[in-house]
Amino acid sequence: PKASVIVDKDFVISKVDERIYGSFIEQLGRAVYGGIYEPDHEQADEHGFRQDVLQLVRDLQVPIVRYPGGNMVSAYNWEDGVGPREERPRRLELAWSTIETNEVGTNEFADWAAKAGTDIMMAVNLGTRGIDAARNLLEYCNHPGGTYYSELRKSHGYEQPHHIKTWCLGNEMDGPWQIGGKTADEYGRLAYETAKAMKTVDPSIELVSCGSSNSAMPTFPEWEATTLSHTYEFADYISLHQYYGNHENDTANFLAKSLDMDQFIRTVISTCDYIKAKKRSKKTINLSFDEWNVWFHSTEADKQLESWQVAPPQLEDVYNFEDALLVANMMHTLINHADRVKMACMAQLVNVIAPIMTENQGRAWKQTIYYPYYYLSVYGRGKALQPIIHSDKYDSREFTDVAYLDSAVVLNEEHNELVLFMTNRHLEASLAVSYDLRSFEQAEVVEHIVLEHDDPKAVNTKEKEEVAPHSRGNAVLEDKQLQAELPRMSWNMVRLR
Ligand code: AHR
Does this entry carry the keyword Hydrolase (predicted)? Predict the structure, then answer.
């Protein structure tokens, strides 16, 4: 099989908003306790944060991290997590049937985020609570001083405001599993009034209106249309969430699931613009794809867990090689929608469906999916260019005309670098690709990174990094034509300068 691609400097989709390389830490399982925070770990710093984990996060250059949930936020009292630790209540955490000790809360997370070099995307509880709790939390976080909640923050040792810019108006409020779930009209009204109060407290913030929990929800996309018709005036973004699995063990079909993500994004864009037209508005709502990943490996194990434990090993998917390929394709899809997708969060970051795993009292290591995340985040910054792809294709169980080549292209003018990201979806054969780079002056291949493995089910463990990239790709550039043979089932990055 083969694929030919045209890339031109003028085929600009948009500047990539670096926040599409965001992630997510929920107070769930071992994401916080035993993940980012483990005060008696030998690598813990003075705040109890694991420095081995911090280093892996910094390497990923994660620009923004969503917090504290997720489903957890819909029954969360933020007040439980601030002030003297010894006075913080232990609570029944209803989303995941655990015990939340509240040892880590808003201020500790802000400390961790500063150390990780990342911004916070804060979610407010619109399940069991509403306008009052949200505006108070915002005042606590962002108001400089001289009021009840800003002075309370200071009394807790945080003189300076946290300056949190991005706020989510609830989480997955369409989901029947959500504590305090709502109909679209109920949510829309509450989110509108909450947004109005929040933007009065701090007009500089940006707000994310809650979209559907996934594209298969029976209320999708009517949920988007109805809720946005309420929240349009104050919302800046709408959220999208999507997880894929390979329960059927059908790899060809699994690797094509990013096509579903693409269609999901297109439908949400259309729905936003439909409401824009109805409202005769000049404002455009952008997309925050603030939960996405592969998630299915741990579902059965989680059913066996006992309720009401502190930080049990929940949602601990062990990712294999083929998962890393779909993760790469999902990231390509985000880049190819850079004009409307301005934020995205790989869900999640540590232990819970995450690229980074830890052992309590032990090591931290990289899952297979860490690698595409790393390369795309570090090198996928600049202008997204639209690759015009002519590729051989296949049909799978759910998809027709799936191109063997999946690709995204980013021009980094600051470093004078053109970066090609490519997946060969073919399960048996290598793919001969040629990129026509007619308008570019770049003259040399800096590196051709390849992620490949004989076994699609190969995983990384704390003992062995079975799946890791190498730089022995065979890309050559001659007369503005880039040629490469992409190994069967592989992900590739070629940097040209
Ligand atoms: O990321 C895990 C969970 O997935 C989140 O808590 C929820 O928002 C989604 O259903």
Answer: yes
The Å distance, Cα 71 to ligand 1 centre, comes to 6
Asked if residues 469 and 450 have their Cβ atoms less than 8 Å apart, the reply is yes
Contact 452, 487 (CB under 8 A): yes
Tell me whether residue 172 is one of the annotated catalytic residues. yes
User: How far is CA 33 from each of CA 52, 163, 261, 311, 461, rounded to the nearest angstrom?
Assistant: 14, 25, 32, 6, 20
Instruction: Indicate whether residue 469 lines ligand 1 (CB < 6 A).
Output: no
- CA of 29 relative to ligand 1 center, distance in Å: 12
Q: Whose CA is nearest to atom 4 of ligand 1?
A: 70
Active site residue 398: no
Task: Establish whether this prediction's ipTM goes over 0.95.
Answer: yes
Decide: residue 172, CB within 10 A, 0-12 exposed, 13-18 middle, 19+ buried. Answer: buried
Q: What are the pLDDT digits (tens) for 170-197? A: 999 999 999 999 999 999 999 999 999 9
Q: What is the pLDDT of residue 443?
A: 78
Q: With contact defined as beta carbons under 8 Å apart, do 428 and 456 qualify?
A: no
Which parts of the chain register pLDDT below 50?
none
Distance of CA 12 to the CA centre of its chain: 23
The two structure tokens encoding residue 447 = 């590196």
Which pLDDT score, from 0 to 100, does residue 179 have? Answer: 98
Residue pair 35/350 in contact (Cβ under 8 Å)? The answer is: yes
In this structure, which long-range contacts are made by residues 139-143, counting pairs with CB atoms below 8 Å and at least 24 apart in sequence? 139/201, 140/78, 140/82, 140/106, 141/106, 141/110, 142/201, 142/202, 142/205, 143/201, 143/202
Give the helix/strand (H/E) hosting 13: strand 12-15
pLDDT, position 442: 82
Q: Tell me: the pLDDT tens digits for 295-348? A: 999 999 999 999 999 999 999 999 999 999 999 999 999 999 999 999 999 999
172 CA: nearest ligand 1 atom: 8
Give the pLDDT of residue 164. Answer: 98
